[in-house]
Write a structure and sequence with these properties.
Elements: E1 5-10, H1 21-26, E2 31-35, H2 44-54, E3 59-64, H3 66-77, E4 82-88, H4 97-111, H5 124-127, H6 136-163, E5 178-183, H7 191-199, E6 204-209, H8 216-219, H9 221-233
Parallel strand pairs: 1-2, 1-3, 3-4, 4-5, 5-6
Helix pairs in contact: 2-3, 4-6
Length: 235
């Protein structure tokens, strides 16, 4: 019998382990899954160090969105420990000026004492494909994740994103089997940016999931799992 992979999964901004629910169950026959915790630190390097400290000695690693930035930093800190790397709906470059301002505005709003709603219905069209906006089960799971992360952790995560470095220069040094997976209709991080990142990683395969936004693990779990299986099978 083939030995199972140790697989560390890192959620996105305002996301919890529920982001990976269908991967933990759907890949249980080939992988022991652990969810990385990035809610306690206000910078990406410390988030990476915390997850590395809790992770197995050698493991496969996947991160979505904010989790993608964290897994790239983990790869920078400990490349010898990572057997496979998957980056989902994320990028290596820093924020634009407009994106930075939006983050600063969000932080100010929350710090002023405005009610913390996490993810509102007005933000959903940016996160998920239009065809899923009436899927109440999916919508409520997204709301619940944001609520569970909470105000203080959200501020720490946004500060970490504001302070993050551009990691483009390290992409060419990645040697393990790598997958870059994008939702074809991702409105937060364009598939074009993700494809460009994949081109700069010598071992990367780029894949897209049709009719899917920024959260493929929840929107299209079966297709996401199929791609993850193929990725884990690479040597």
């Amino acid at each position: 019998m083939t030995e199972k992979h140790s697989l560390v999964l890192v959620p996105g901004l305002l996301c919890t382990a529920d982001l990976w629910r269908d991967q933990v169950s759907g890949l249980a026959d080939i992988a022991h899954c652990m969810i990385g915790d990035h809610t306690h630190d206000d910078n990406i390097p410390d988030m990476a160090r915390r997850i590395l400290a809790a992770a197995p000695k050698r493991f496969a690693l996947a991160g979505l969105s904010l989790g993608g930035y964290v897994v790239l930093e983990m790869m920078r800190q400990a490349p010898e420990r990572i057997t496979h790397l998957a980056i989902l709906d994320s990028r290596a470059i820093g924020d634009t000026t407009e994106e930075r301002q939006k983050r600063l505005d969000f932080i100010k709003l929350v710090e002023r004492g405005s009610a913390f709603k996490g993810v509102t219905r007005s933000l959903l069209p940016i996160l998920i494909h239009p065809s899923r906006l009436e899927d109440e089960d999916l919508v409520q799971r997204i709301f619940k994740m944001a609520e569970d992360v909470g105000k203080e952790a959200f501020i720490r995560q946004e500060r970490a994103l504001l302070a993050r470095e551009d990691l483009s220069d390290m992409l060419q040094d990645i040697e393990c089997p790598t997958m870059v997976l994008a939702g074809a209709e991702d409105r937060l991080i364009s598939p074009e940016l993700q494809r460009e990142m994949a081109i700069n990683i010598p071992t990367a395969q780029y894949v897209e999931i049709k009719d899917c936004g920024h959260l493929p693990t929840m929107e299209k779990p079966e297709e996401t799992n199929d791609f993850l299986r193929r990725w884990l099978a690479r040597h």
